[in-house]
Amino acid sequence: xxxxxxxxxxxxxxxxxxxxxxxxxxxxxxxxxxxxxxxxxxxxxxxxxxxxxxxxxxxxxxxxxxxxxxxxxxxxxxxxxxxxxxxxxxxxxxxxxxxxxxxxxxxxxxxxxxxxxxxxxxxxxxxxxxxxxxxxxxxxxxxxxxxxxxxxxxxxxxxxxxxxxxxxxxxxxxxxxxxxxxxxxxxxxxxxxxxxxxxxxxxxxxxxxxxxxxxxxxxxxxxxxxxxxxxxxxxxxxxxxxxxxxxxxxxxxxxxxxxxxxxxxxxxxxxxxxxxxxxxxxxxxxxxxxxxxxxxxxxxxxxxxxxxxxxxxxxxxxxxxxxxxxxxxxxxxxxxxxxxxxxxxxxxxxxxxxxxxxxxxxxxxxxxxxxxxxxxxxxxxxxxxxxxxxxxxxxxxxxxxxxxxxxxxxxxxxxxxxxxxxxxxxxxxxxxxxxxxxxxxxxxxxxxxxxxxxxxxxxxxxxxxxxxxxxxxxxxxxxxxxxxxxxxxxxxxxxxxxxxx
Length: 501
Prior knowledge:
The structure is a single chain. By secondary structure, this protein is an alpha/beta fold. The protein is 42% helix and 10% strand. The chain is built from 18 helices and eight strands. The protein has helices spanning 33-37, 104-108, 113-121, 143-148, 150-153, 158-175, 190-201, 227-239, 241-259, 263-270, 280-296, 304-314, 321-333, 349-360, 382-393, 401-406, 411-418, 468-500, and strands at residues 53-60, 73-81, 94-98, 124-128, 183-188, 208-212, 422-427, 445-450. Strands 1-2-4-3-5-6-7-8 form an eight-stranded mixed sheet, with helices on both faces. The longest helix has 33 residues, at 468-500. Keywords: Glycoprotein, Hydrolase, Protease, Signal. Residues 1-20 form the signal peptide. This is Lysosomal Pro-X carboxypeptidase. GO terms for molecular function: dipeptidyl-peptidase activity; serine-type exopeptidase activity.
């Protein structure tokens, strides 16, 4: 996935210069950035040399046109872990992780679902990087160079990305003589959307898809705009009513102090900001991002929302409201010499890339009205959003395209009629579950949800401390996949008998 008082993540994009930055739309992300940064690298890590081999596929720039420039190519990175695979003659499955809006090795560090379950399937594991991220960037391999050019940006979209995945997987099966190996695609967040869309668009390539925390209904008004922030609020309120009330009333107090003589200096000192605040919205937007970050990744065993609320409540008798809020910030971010209100405002590859994606096709209208959350009112304004994107990129966002291309308000009925073999998994504490599929659609399009789960928790590394409900969620998903593969194998045997007769 704030900084317009309408989005929870500050996302940055640029037009003529890389440092011409502005927020656009929520990014998703399988796990918190801090989790990835602090992940220890061990010999058993899947991205170690012993376990993962890196390859590059010569990928076509444009899969859908036949202009001369469409035939340009770039090198797309993918990684293979073959230590569990039974080999080409076994018909053992291929688990394919579909990379999303960041370098694929960022996710390999935290996603454990594939390597932890590959042994029981004797499966081959492949991780494929999304075009324009990591080392899979067209036009010379520089994100800066690719994104500055209006023509080169036009090849950066989800339809091209899933076509890339199809090309890589078909070539991989041919190269490994694995034509009878069924493919299960797996993705989380935006990658979860890609996994579900891949199964819909390329059913001849993928036998099934596990789409973790995929808000495929958060487009074109299908899901309510306030859904995301409503769940953030619910998470805090369930953790502590008094904490919720303190946060709710803190916004007006921040503005009141800001209006005082030397008010911004007072706020800067109270919150130990690394530089003096220029306005109160800078602090409010920073706190907005902190709360939504905590809620989205509110996972065991620590549960960040609970940690924040305990700190806020514990400070009630020794400080004022803003002092309480600061204690919550410290509990979440750690005790630091100062706090960077620009924490969510760095020109990272993810922020730059997702900014463009948000301004083109991935338009997810997230906002909230006056009394439906613990946040100040901030309704989504499509008109100003479109105008801003147009001024930055010279193109109009297409808020209707995702529902046109992949399915819209009647998506559940459509999927019931023609689709199969998709698991939509969600944790109901994840704000993005408000745009997820939470009920079974058919016998083979199934929703696997947990009341206490958070964003993409089911596909992250298993831990000894994982609660029983999380262990069972993963077991349910594995049993469904086993059923798909068993049916595939039975169908293969039956068809072979028909051919020989």
